Amino acid sequence: MSYSIAEAARRSGLSIDTLRYYERMKLLEPPARDAAGRRAYSDEDLEWLGFLTKLRTTGMPIKMMREYAQLRWQGDAAAPRRMAILVEQRRSVRERIAELQSCLDVLDYKIDKYETVCRFVTGATREEISA
């Protein structure tokens, strides 16, 4: 299947400008062109964009994404380095999750305290307070 840049943007959840930026940054191989010279994205391109989006969501810097993309084009010989990049990013994500969990624990503690105070002050139930 082949998709225009607008359709690829819609399907990937990225903007047209982001698709062009990813191409300029060499995160994405230049897509094929149709008979009129317009970009024609494939299903494989969209899968790769989905993976790039996940990497970006994890906080991976563009520089590291770029290295990963270049290694991808080198094939299986670059698999050890690609895996090392992903292992390091996973470690970073786990650290961030632990940090966020700690923040959530503090928020839960404070909310519980305020609910107790609100019930005492107003006599309202937890559901009434939260509404």
TrEMBL record:
One Pfam family it belongs to: MerR_1
SMART domains, sorted:
HTH_MERR
State the UniProt keywords alphabetically: DNA-binding
All copies of the HTH merR-type domain together span: 1-71
Q: Does the keyword Cytoplasm apply?
A: no
PANTHER family reported in the protein's UniProt record: HTH-TYPE TRANSCRIPTIONAL REGULATOR ADHR (PTHR30204:SF98), REDOX-CYCLING DRUG-SENSING TRANSCRIPTIONAL ACTIVATOR SOXR (PTHR30204)
Q: What is the recorded name of this protein?
A: MerR family transcriptional regulator
Biological source species? Amycolatopsis pigmentata
